[in-house]
Amino acid sequence: MAWRKSSPELVRAFDSALPQSSLVERRKMFGYSAAFVHGNMFAGLHQEDVLVRLPEAERQALFSSGGRNFEPMPGRDEESDGRTLSLWLRKAFDHTSQLPAKGTRAANSKPSSKLLGAKRPKAKGRKR
Question: How is the beta sheet containing 32-37 ordered, strand by strand?
Answer without folding.
Answer: 25-29, 32-37, 40-46, 49-52
